[in-house]
Design goal:
Length: 111
């Protein structure tokens, strides 16, 4: 990882220890402030990227769901047409089958 060159170099020693330490502390505070700002900016960029990716993925899932629902509706329409055709051809058999299913459901519901 490359280090960014800073325009503010560390303060030079003047011989006064107290003043030197205060200057170094002030310099460190400024550097920490810059670092915190850089981290904050990086976090904002990452958050925007994640949000954009989530939006794109959400749109893909929505489209895929709509296609699946459309396919299921078509299959249901085909099944309905097939069942309707069988009922028209053999109405008594359909009534007997419906009664049988109702009887089984009643048995299961009683338990």
């Amino acid at each position: 990882m490359a280090r960014a060159a800073t325009s503010n170099s560390a303060p030079k020693a003047t011989g006064d220890i107290s003043a030197d330490m205060e200057a170094q502390i002030a310099h460190l505070k400024a550097e920490m402030s810059k670092l915190a700002e850089s981290v904050s900016n990086a976090g904002s960029v990452i958050a925007k990227d994640v949000k954009g990716n989530a939006r794109v993925r959400g749109e893909q899932v929505r489209r895929q769901s709509e296609a699946t629902i459309r396919d299921l509706r078509e299959q249901l329409d085909e099944i309905e047409a097939t069942v309707s055709g069988h009922v028209r051809e053999r109405p008594l058999t359909a009534i007997a089958a419906a009664a049988g299913v109702g009887f089984l459901v009643a048995l299961l519901a009683r338990r």
